[in-house]
Structure formats: C-alpha cells, structure tokens
Design brief:
The chain is mainly alpha-helical. It contains twelve helices and three strands.
Length: 230
C-alpha cells in the first residue's frame, strides 16, 4: 500500500484525495473482515494519514467582481450572481432548479455533504436568476467560464477556478462584519475549523491585541518610567 500511495502522489494526486481514497478502502476491508470474506489484516490500518497542505485561498476584489459581471452575459452572468450572493459551490449552482427558489430562499439539494441547505436571497437576485418557472436555471460551459475567470484574475491558484466565487462570498461576508457562526451555516461546513479560514478578514479580528497590550497601541514612554530605568 505504501508503494500505491507513493505512486498516487507522484502522479499528482493531492494528499487530501489520497486520504479520502484510503478511508474508503479501509472501510471496504473492514466490511470484508467482519463478513469473514477476508482473513488478513487491514492493510490501511498501519498507514498514518498524510499531512494535508492547506490550499491557498484567494477571492475577487470589488473591482474584479465588477469586471467579471461586465465580461459575462446570459446564464454565465446569472450563475455568477447566484454564487456571489449565496456562496454556492459550482455543482450546487448548476443543479439548482427554478422550483428550488421559493419564499426568498435558494435551496440547494445537490450538496457536497448531502444535506439540503437554504440561503436567503433578495428580490433583485431572484428577478435576475429565476427566468423561468421550472427546470434547471443555468447551462454554462465550465471550460469557457474558467477562461473568463482567469482573464479577470490571472493569479488564481491552480485548481481553484470557479470555487473562487464561493471564497469571494465568504471573504466579503466577513469583511462586511458577518458572524463566523452564521457563515458556517450558510456555507454548509461540517465543522467550524473550515469556516475559520475566513475569520482573519473580519474588521475587528484580534483588535484586542492593540487595545490590551502593555503599550495600549502607543509608543510614547512616560518620563516616570524613563527615570526609574536611569
């Protein structure tokens, strides 16, 4: 199994991908062992999980958002508006049907963790994206959209592409003073650690470091202190 793991990494698979695959394989062996269909040891159990590198996170600035909206039209523009308004993943957005937009909420059913998630949206966004009464709302060529994104933001990290729209929603949510726990619910993260990636963007993030440090944010040294040190 070590050789298989090494080959996967050599072929370009990420550590997170290999870890997920090994979890599935380990579960398969466990089922076979419990069913007395396999009598050896679970070959995955002896392997420790690979250390996963935290992926680089970037997002679109307000100016880049404006350029992207100007560069898109039709379904491409509408799906951009939806993703930037809800933090939806690309797959969640492309599977969204008109029937899923009701009562000023967009409800995503095809989610990564399988849990249905609803996000409030404004009347203006509904008017822009819900252009028919039923059926899927967007038909966008992903390859062409990805090229358009890279024209707007050439320094996008490898493999991120349309996921930058989700990052952009979360980043601006925190920059604008959003609550980290609310963001977790909107994004559908299983644990708060995933959402904490965006915490440093909050305007008051760790501001107590200035207010509560020994110098209180000042560099003036009182004369009484200078005299006592003399």
């Amino acid at each position: 199994m070590k050789e298989w793991r090494t080959q996967r990494l050599h072929d370009g698979s990420k550590a997170s991908t290999v870890n997920r695959d090994e979890t599935v394989i380990s579960s398969m062996f466990r089922v076979l062992i419990d069913a007395n269909e396999y009598y050896g040891d679970n070959p995955i159990r002896s392997l420790s999980a690979l250390k996963e590198k935290t992926p680089e996170m970037t997002y679109l600035t307000s100016e880049e958002i404006a350029r992207l909206l100007e560069a898109t039209e039709g379904d491409a523009q509408r799906i951009t508006i939806l993703c930037l308004s809800t933090g939806a993943r690309w797959g969640e957005a492309t599977s969204l049907k008109a029937e899923h937009i009701q009562h000023k909420r967009a409800t995503f059913t095809e989610t990564k963790n399988g849990k249905v998630r609803s996000v409030p949206i404004s009347d203006e966004v509904i008017k822009a994206v819900k252009i028919k009464a039923s059926g899927t709302l967007f038909n966008v060529n992903y390859s062409e959209y990805r090229k358009m994104l890279r024209e707007v933001k050439p320094d996008l990290p490898k493999g991120q592409a349309a996921h930058v729209l989700r990052h952009t929603f979360a980043a601006h949510f925190m920059i604008n003073g959003g609550n980290i726990l609310t963001l977790q619910k909107i994004m559908g993260h299983a644990n708060i650690q995933q959402t904490m990636t965006y915490a440093h963007l909050a305007p008051d993030y760790l501001q107590d470091a200035i207010a509560l440090n020994p110098l209180r944010g000042n560099i003036h040294i009182p004369s009484t202190l200078m005299g006592s040190n003399g």
